[in-house]
Structure formats: C-alpha cells, structure tokens
Task: structure prediction
Amino acid sequence: MPDRFVRVALGVTLGLLIAFVAQPYILAFLFSAEAPRPVTARGDLSAAEQTTVDLFARAAPSVVHVFAQAAAQGRGLMEPDDEFGQGPGEGQQQGSGTQTGTGFVWDAAGHVVTNNHVVEAATKGGGSISVRLSSGEVVSARVVGTAPSYDLAVLQLGRVAKMPPPIAVGTSADLKVGQAAFAIGNPFGLDHTLTTGVISALQRRLPTQEGRELSGVIQTDAAINPGNSGGPLLDSAGRLIGVNTAIFSPSGASAGIGFAVPVDVVNRVIPDLIRNGRVRNPGIGIIAGQEATAARLGIDGVVVLRVLPGSPAAQAGLRGVDPRTGEIGDVIVGANGRPVHRLSDLTAVVEETGLDRPVTLLVERDGRMRTVRLNTADVAQTRL
Result:
C-alpha cells in the first residue's frame, strides 16, 4: 500500500512537471494570433485631446523650418545631414556652418518671424537662408530686418506655390501662471514637433545681445530643444503668445525651463522691422557704465558713462564720467517712481514708457538728489 501511494504521488508530480514545461508550447499552439487581430473601438477622443489635435491642425501649417547657411562653408549634396546632432544653445548647428531653427508666417505677404540668433551667422557673413514649409516645399528667403536686442528677425519668403496661412496672434498681457502652453518647432531637425506644458512663470528677465536685458519674458516647461528657436508658443486657443528663444539646461537639452519673448513685444517690434529693417528703440541717449564696476565702488544705480550729443539726456543736462579725471557725474537711481538698481530696471521702465513719451528720473550727483524730466526718443540698439 505505501509503495503504491508513492508511485501515484510520483506519477502526479511528474505529470504536473510535464504540464508546467509544456504550457508555453500548448498555449502557443492553441492561441497564437496568426492573422491580423481585430481592432478594438476606442470611442471619441476626450475633450482635452480633441482640443490639442485641433490646435495643432490649425497652427502647424504656419510653422516653418529655417536653414541659415554661413558664407564660404557650403556643404556638398553627398554629405549626410546630422539631423540629430546636438547644437549649441537653443538653435541647432547642423554640420558645417548651417544653423537651423523654427519660424512662423506672420502675414499674407510671406514675412516669417524667427530668432535673430538663428540667422545671424548668415546675415553677417553674406550667407544664404532657405525655409522648408509644412507642405515640404523649400524656398529661398532673405532677411528684412533684425532686432538683436529682442532676439527677433524677419525673413521674406521667395516665390511660393501656395502661401501658408499667417499664425493667429494673441496677447501676453493677460497670461496666468499655470495655464496651458503649446510649442511647435523642429527640435534636432524633427519637423513640426508639438510639445505641451504650462506657463511656469512670468516677468522673467533674459539677457540678449548688445548688453541689454529683455523684461517680461515667459517661462514654460513645454519641452524646448535645439532647433525650437524662433518657434511659436501658443495658448489653448492656438494663438501666438510668445516666440521660443532660449532654454536653461546644463546638458544642452530640455530641462523643463524654456523662455519665450512675449507676443506683445513681438507685435510691437515686427512691424518696425518690416517697415524700416530695424526696430525703433525707446531710449534716453546714455551709455551706462559696467554694473560690476559700479558694484565694486558701492554704487547702487546706473552710472552714466557717456551722454550722446543731441539726445534727450543731453538736453536734460545729464552728465557722464569725466574722461580726464574719471570723476563720476550722474547716477540714475529711480525712474517713474520705481527704484533703479541696475540697467535692466531702467530699460524696463523706458520700454514700458514707449517712444516720444515723458519719463521722470531720480538722479544722484555729488551726493545730492534731483529730479530730471525728459522725453524718450529713438536711439541705436547699442544704447539706452
């Protein structure tokens, strides 16, 4: 009896072991899907998904891919494109001297807005610029005007088979932190990539060329990478609210901190570029001293280094540093009732004031404070 029980137990155990080992083969034999599987109906997209889909469908045709080729650095047709190469900054450097970025159609005349740093090498070195439209058509383009102080540039498309629609323009005056933000661009050469996020912060300051700072900058966590430069930042209605221009990233790729020039600035600057090729910058006609030097001297404010002849500052009697003795003349410590600690504080007030408008300065000279009233005027981009 015990021997029989042992034999039965061993038989059962062996059978279970065989079944365990054979199970995958049995399942594969009985249930393998050797024909295409039927598609499971998913139902309608959610309201949020459909909104995003519709937004992209409306805005994407207005977005273009910009290629700026520096002079005397042409590449052969047989050279492969380095589409996925890492580029410096937020524009993407492709191969030998080609800077790529994003732009968008501004009007029915074929003007395209992009970042100045995307086309700068081509404009300074006599290079060439071409644009690939959403349809795939590649057309030549020329620079109409640039505004380095705002990192903006306007291109004019050449002959186009069918002009893309201008992008819808919104406003940045009523933006709220936390509202949805959408970026369309060409990161790493990947055409018409949509990324989503929120507006992370407002009123950021961003250094631009010519020693100026741009105030009121939009911060977003929508992924922005090399190649996104010059592309649109959109609100949930698909309207332009900013131009993506920079990222903060130790690695060079998106770290969730991107910056965009607010559309209200863009809407003011671009018409000037189209009309005049340059932007009319509100200023008072001074050259400011180095902030680091002022800080070392314990000066809190903007040191007037030089006053431009015939400028509003000159007419108001502002005084710069004496070139013979090095004696400091005027230090601007306030503007329109707001404290001025550094040049960006003064720049923000002057730009908010606009052209040919009065501005009131609080100026310190020889330890004494006085009030100076003057009107802003159009000054060169390298001046305030």
